[in-house]
Amino acid sequence: MDAIFLQFLNGLDKGGAYALIALGLTLVFGTLGVVNFAHGALFMLGAFCAVTLRKLLTLEMVATDPEKVTAWGTPLEIRTPYVEAWFGDFGAFMVDFSVPFSILLAIPVMLVIGVVMERGLIKHFYRRPHAEQILVTFGLAIVLQEIIKHYFGANPIPQPMPSAVGGAADIGAALGMDPNVIVYPWWRLIYFAFSVVVIGAVFAFLQFTTFGMVVRAGMADRETVGLIGIDIDKRFTAMFGLAAIVAGMAGVMYTPLLPPDYHLGMDFLVLSFVVVVVGGMGSLPGAVAAGFLLGILQSLASMTEIKAIIPGIDQIIIYLVAVIILLVRPRGLLGRRGVMES
Amino acid sequence: MNKIFSMSRKDVLTFVIFSAVVLLMPIWLQPFGAAYPDLMQKFAIFGILAIGFNVLFGLTGYLSFGHAAFLGVGSYTAVWTFKLFSMNPIPALILAVIMAGLFALAIGYVSLRRSGIYFSILTLAFAQMSYNLAYSVLTPITNGETGLQLELQDPRVIDSAFGSTSDGSLPVSNLFGLVDMNGIPGFYFCAVFLIIGFFITQRIFASPFGMMLRAIKSNQTRMNYTGFNTRPYTLTAFVISGMFAGLAGGLMAVTDPLAGAERMQWTASGEIVLMTILGGVGTLIGPVVGAWLIKYFENIFSSFNESVLHNLFAFLPDGVEKFVVEITSMFVGEGWHLTLGLIFMLVVTFLPGGMMEGFRRIGSLFNRDGGDKAKPNEKTPAPAPAE
Fold it and tell me: Which residues form a coiled coil (chain B) (predicted)?
């Protein structure tokens, strides 16, 4: 029972990442009608925002201490990051919390990238067949990841989490069970909470603001909204920017869990597409539900007890579920009728 | 039998020219610096792969993102045949094609229940499943990350029954003990299959079956309303194209007896799609041209490194030279995929018909200026990309 609960927790953070990416994919698809294979690359770009910020923050100045010498007889070098030298303790705090701070960098960067991408490329593909949309965004994804590879190299770049939350939380004790049975890293809990907050914010934005209302109306019937005299294209572009921001933030926060490398996006993209299809193409709640569901299923399947019964199930469970869902319930869990069924 | 070989004059001409081009590769590739066996084998093998993919995507419009799985199955089967039975490539290829065909039958039977993007996702899911399994649970069959290789103590029952003895080194695949399957003979072996494959697709394109597939591409709903059950046709196309991929995988193992799981990864499937699109979907020759171009430029561009670039731009002033080298080095060598991605985006955006459509447009441009040589069917304007 404890083991199941622990695996359940394990699934939450991964599920959070799937849900965030799938949410963005669905937003883009629901508004612009474009199947965006480059969405995983946006996740990856977000992760590299964190890498960049950390690189900038840890630029060091080197001073030599004339009084001390190292074991080799050379003067001892003292390396301090510039921010620490300038801001003292606050600088050290910034270096320590570089990953959460990166969100502040990622939001404007991803917004710009998203809007440029939409205006520059996606715009021309609204009315082209889905196959061509897939292909051109696939090409774009390759280009983006190769650019990252050129500047950051091919190796994963680990990002430390803030030391304050580096430890693990004794959840079992907090829930009145035996202590030290269910222990879970803080950062993973934070990631789960973060994804819930972001998802909630996106839904609230769509549900409770006028802007969101217009976007929802546009998703339901683009033409009529246009006839009323609203420039729906502009708002849809903004939604693409929003989707890019969501993917980017998901990427930033995921860096301590998985050192980012240039093909991070591709790895997550395939899974996220499966998530979208399982949830139901075009359904936002479906995407979120399927993201968490598949994340949890995946971690449950990697329990040794289950692997003993069906070897290798943890490797294929997500795809297997997708195949079954697509065959028995073609619209996905919460999909609407008639979306992409032609 | 007669009917199979009755071809229109244009088809015969295309076929003869194609065969000549393929067989004379070692000669006409000389000036391009590509006339060495390894690369030409790749040309032939990936040509087969692209041709086969085109039978599915070009004719029926079903975009499979999991074709690399069949390639992998073909490779594994061929290597296992080498290990267990004989180093002769013929049985290996036959088994590879059969296994890939069975695989395609199973996957196609399930995937083809859906169309459009759902079909793409389903094939992708199956391919990823095969890839993940090949890496993990199926390690006894696939040898996991190391890849399946030949070993000295392999049984090779048929070979040993004929009394071939091992001389202490790993055997090379050979045709009835006559020719070793590497170097130029290996290329010609692959080339023969490429030509056979081209002939088969040519026949499919011209047949009522091919017509049916094209009808499915243009309007499947109407086909269903007219009372056709389209699924047997799409399934046949899927299996045929899977068998082509299996053949290509088998040939890869013949020329280099090694099979690894990375051949099944979905980026490999993506590469097949790239080749076909770049050359021209739905045309006979386009996919082969696309495969050749990609493999050629991959080879050329990957070999460029900084020092080559410095030599190339040595005539420029120092600062400018550094800058130019810095910029170009992004696109060659390790960064060759960047160039590929850019070219691919440009092609999809401006020339959805691929290189073949480009040639046709250039051709019609000259014909309009220079007279009335254009054949009537080539004058039909290419579908303009929508804004």
Answer: none
| pLDDT, tens digit, 9 for 90 and up, residues A104-145 | 999 999 999 999 999 988 888 888 888 888 888 988 998 998
Domain ranges of chain B: 2-285
Residue among B291, B258, B242, B238 nearest B96 (CA): B242
pLDDT-wise least confident of A160-174, B16-30, B31-45, B283-297: A160-174
Q: What is the SS3 assignment for A183? A: strand
CA dihedral in degrees (A291, A277, B68, B77; nearest 10)?
80
SS3 state at B251: helix
In chain A, where the domains are located: 2-328
Task: Classify residue B75 as left (phi > 0), alpha (psi -120 to 50) or beta.
Answer: alpha
The topology (CATH level 3) of B2-285 is: ABC transporter involved in vitamin B12 uptake, BtuC (1.10.3470)
| Interchain proximity A323–B110, CB inside 8 Å | yes
Considering only CB atoms, which residues of chain A are within 8 Å of chain B?
A: 35, 121, 124-125, 127-128, 130-132, 134-136, 138-143, 146-147, 149-150, 266, 270, 273-274, 277, 281, 311-312, 315-316, 319-320, 322-323, 326-327, 330, 340-342
- For B273, the closest of A35, A130, A135 (CB atoms) is A135
A195 forms bridges with which residues in the sheet? none
Task: Collect all residues of chain A within an 8 Å Cβ-Cβ radius of residue B331.
Answer: none
CB atoms within 10 A of CB A49: 25
- Short-list B277, B275, B274, B280, CA closest to B357: B280
